[in-house]
């Protein structure tokens, strides 16, 4: 049988890295589009790198950008993919308020550029395309739990851009008979989640605080509720969505929701530290109530969580909870992780990372100052 060829945009991101590994294990040739950056941005996929001078290479990287249509068209023509996974995006909701036009260009029109490239190349019957849609589309609560038929009410420039991408994907499916699908994925996290998303910010800070490398962490809205799953379970679904008989749109979620505050408690709890929260709004504080882990020398009553207004968004999404019944029933999706195992996975990884920092610090490791 001929090898399948996948093209992944956003290959250097959390999902791109896990999906590349998953598809390589399935025997695909995997091509990824990465952006040029002044420093290496391939940390998450370095373990998959192959020397292009050896035989049987099956992982390939191409420079590209979703804001450059000629480049996308050329790559698709060269690669001749069977499947395209459009994961590239300016994916930070808060940052999208600072960069609304760029976000619309990359996240909204970027999707159109890919679809048009496929059509102009006459490959609309050959290529199956997955669009990384998001639970942010639901925005202001219209219905819970949220399903494939819940109305959208986006609450950020990011969500509005993704809404354009959602509908242009549906439109190209209906207008040109393309196999084009939206995966409406709820928040999914992992040890390689970007450091400024709230879960990773918390697991990194909790690890540092436990080890005495940081005093406290400043967060924004502790009342926000999210349906958090594990990225590994979700990237498997991206592939399953493109293997289905018919092109459709799918919700992927755990069906459980948790506040940011409770997520913080779970992370500290993982290392044996009990927190209690006092006060309201910007005056809320998280204090150490007890510590039953002899490894960590922490003062009881110490304030480790504080709120900083700068992390509040101009418009917030208060509550997300998804119903993935359709994906479970029609595609047989069974997630392997729950929130407890997600916290375990993220915390154990960040503790190892921070222990390394502690070891270097205690060993008197010096860092050269390049600006002396
Ligand atoms: P990340 O932020 O980790 O990765 C985004 C990727 O897109 C990176 O590889 C980034 O490159 C790349 N990128 C950004 N802008 C451009 C551009 N203009 N041209 C080409 N590449 C670009 O996101 P995730 O892996 O978490 O998410 C993957 C996709 O799924 C995104 O589209 C996101 O919006 C969506 N999504 C994510 C969810 C989640 O909970 N993780 C939930 C629902 C949807 P670089 O490394 O150079 O920055
Ligand atoms: P989200 O993820 O906006 O849901 O988008 P994020 O982790 O940034 O925020 C989740 C919730 O936590 C609240 N919050 C904070 N958020 C951040 N980043 N930093 C903080 O200090 C902080 N304090 C509280 C936020 O207000 C929010 O309510 C993610 C991205 O991956 C999107 O690309 C994706 O589409 C959606 O998930 C589904």
TrEMBL record:
<dbReference type="InterPro" id="IPR016040">
    <property type="entry name" value="NAD(P)-bd_dom"/>
</dbReference>
<dbReference type="InterPro" id="IPR006368">
    <property type="entry name" value="GDP_Man_deHydtase"/>
</dbReference>
<keyword id="KW-0521">NADP</keyword>
<protein>
    <recommendedName>
        <fullName>GDP-mannose 4,6-dehydratase</fullName>
        <ecNumber>4.2.1.47</ecNumber>
    </recommendedName>
</protein>
<dbReference type="Pfam" id="PF16363">
    <property type="entry name" value="GDP_Man_Dehyd"/>
</dbReference>
<dbReference type="InterPro" id="IPR036291">
    <property type="entry name" value="NAD(P)-bd_dom_sf"/>
</dbReference>
<feature type="domain" description="NAD(P)-binding">
    <location>
        <begin position="7"/>
        <end position="346"/>
    </location>
</feature>
<dbReference type="GO" id="GO:0008446">
    <property type="term" value="F:GDP-mannose 4,6-dehydratase activity"/>
</dbReference>
<keyword id="KW-0456">Lyase</keyword>
<comment type="function">
    <text>Catalyzes the conversion of GDP-D-mannose to GDP-4-dehydro-6-deoxy-D-mannose.</text>
</comment>
<comment type="similarity">
    <text>Belongs to the NAD(P)-dependent epimerase/dehydratase family. GDP-mannose 4,6-dehydratase subfamily.</text>
</comment>
């Amino acid at each position: 049988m001929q090898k399948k060829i996948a093209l992944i945009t956003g290959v250097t991101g959390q999902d791109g890295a896990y999906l590349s590994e998953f598809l390589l294990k399935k025997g695909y040739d995997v091509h990824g589009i990465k952006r040029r950056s002044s420093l290496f941005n391939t940390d998450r996929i370095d373990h998959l790198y192959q020397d292009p001078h050896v035989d049987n290479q099956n992982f390939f990287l191409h420079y590209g950008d979703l804001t450059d249509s000629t480049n996308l068209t050329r790559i698709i023509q060269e690669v001749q993919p069977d499947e395209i996974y459009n994961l590239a995006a300016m994916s930070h909701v808060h940052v999208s308020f600072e960069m609304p036009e760029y976000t619309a260009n990359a996240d909204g029109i970027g999707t159109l550029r890919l679809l048009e490239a496929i059509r102009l190349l006459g490959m609309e019957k050959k290529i199956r395309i997955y669009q990384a849609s998001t639970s942010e589309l639901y925005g202001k609560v219209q219905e819970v739990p949220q399903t494939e038929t819940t109305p959208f009410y986006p609450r950020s420039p990011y969500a509005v851009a993704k809404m354009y991408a959602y509908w242009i994907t549906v439109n190209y499916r209906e207008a040109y008979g393309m196999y084009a699908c939206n995966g409406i994925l709820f928040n999914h996290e992992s040890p390689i989640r970007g450091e400024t998303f709230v879960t990773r910010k918390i697991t990194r800070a909790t690890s540092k605080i436990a080890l005495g490398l940081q005093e406290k962490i400043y967060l924004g809205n502790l009342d926000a509720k999210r349906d958090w799953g594990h990225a590994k379970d979700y990237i498997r679904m991206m592939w399953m969505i493109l293997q289905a008989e018919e092109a459709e749109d799918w919700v992927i979620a755990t069906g459980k929701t948790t506040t940011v505050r409770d997520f913080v408690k779970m992370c500290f709890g993982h290392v044996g530290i009990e927190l209690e929260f006092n006060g309201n709004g910007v005056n809320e504080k998280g204090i150490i109530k007890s510590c039953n882990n002899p490894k960590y020398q922490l003062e009881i009553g110490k304030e480790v969580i504080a709120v900083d207004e700068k992390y509040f968004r101009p418009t917030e999404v208060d509550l997300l909870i998804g119903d993935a019944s359709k994906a479970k029933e029609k595609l047989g999706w069974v997630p392997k992780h729950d929130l407890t195992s997600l916290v375990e996975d993220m915390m154990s990884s960040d503790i190892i990372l921070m222990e390394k920092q502690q070891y270097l610090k205690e060993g008197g490791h010096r860092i050269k100052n390049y600006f002396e």
